[in-house]
Amino acid sequence: METLGRMCHAGGRIDPVRDRPESVIDPEEASEEKSFQHKPLEGGTVMIHIVNNDALGEQLSKCEPLKGEIFVWREMYDLGPFSSEWDAKEMITRRASFFEDRIGISKAQFEMISYYQEQRLKRIPQTTTITLWFQSHRHDQLMLLYLLNRINQYGLKYVDWVEVPQKEILSEAVLLRQYENRYSLERQHLKHAVTAWKNYISSDPRNILHWLGTSFSPLLFVFNAFHRHLDYFPQYQNGLNVIEAQALQVISEHTPTFFELYEEIHQLREEDGLSEVHFAAMLNELGKGCAPLICTERGEGITIPDRDRPDRPIMLTSLGESVMAGEKDRIQTCGIDWWLGGVHLTSEGCWRRDSKGCLK
């Protein structure tokens, strides 16, 4: 999975100097309903493969039967702020500030890559076939929603989705098999993607619950992605979300290093597509300030580790133990300043999820 730390490297045959960005435009609605089906080879005479990591892009570039331009899209739509009230320029600016503050990615670098990607997508000719290579988990499905939202705006007609297997080695045979079983994304899929994305970036998370309860979207994996997304909201009993509670439970059992902890949580949450960067950012929130819930063996806060350096064990603080036991509340004790799609969680106004799954 690609992290934003590698956004500065141009993927495939894309040239950021040649394709310097101009402007970014907001999406608009779609219409005309059609059926969901496997798609035979048709569409435009030129093909662009959009992927979200360099490893897949490199494998595709070596797959002779699947010739086409490789476009590596670098973003993390499961992390950081969104708002239906922001235009595309403000969204990029605010997200760049968030990633610089929480992860240490250069704001200028983030903005440069974001504008470049948007402009490159805008310049794709309408006769081009776009093949989107994404997995079925939350991380990739949110990226798929965003891209379909933009593709709908630009009026691109030939769009396929290839489901990338999560646990298979991506040999040429596997790539060809998945490509042969690709899905045609017609107008109805773009229409539903636009609606789903609007719900995701809404400031009221109940819109997602309403969409899950009333929609008959043909984008089947989005349902699971949204259900997983709701697990990231704080719970009533202690202010921790499901993933944070699982992490603290593992820490209480055997003081793992960051990468040991990540692997355990990743196995528990395979359908999330949770990246190391995203997970480290979540742990940072639990380990910072004057009232941390976790720390390293030296009593330090949690930082995003380097695989080339020794990884220190993570421990619970006494406050972390109290929160786990339900004796204290994470938000009341430590505060919160976090984004889930378009929802800004703050100490003054924080949506919580009860035992029945309702948000209040």
From TrEMBL:
User: Which residue range or ranges hold the DUF1835 domain?
Assistant: 48-154
Cite the InterPro entries for this sequence.
DUF1835
In this chain, the stretch annotated as Disordered covers: 1-38
Name it: DUF1835 domain-containing protein
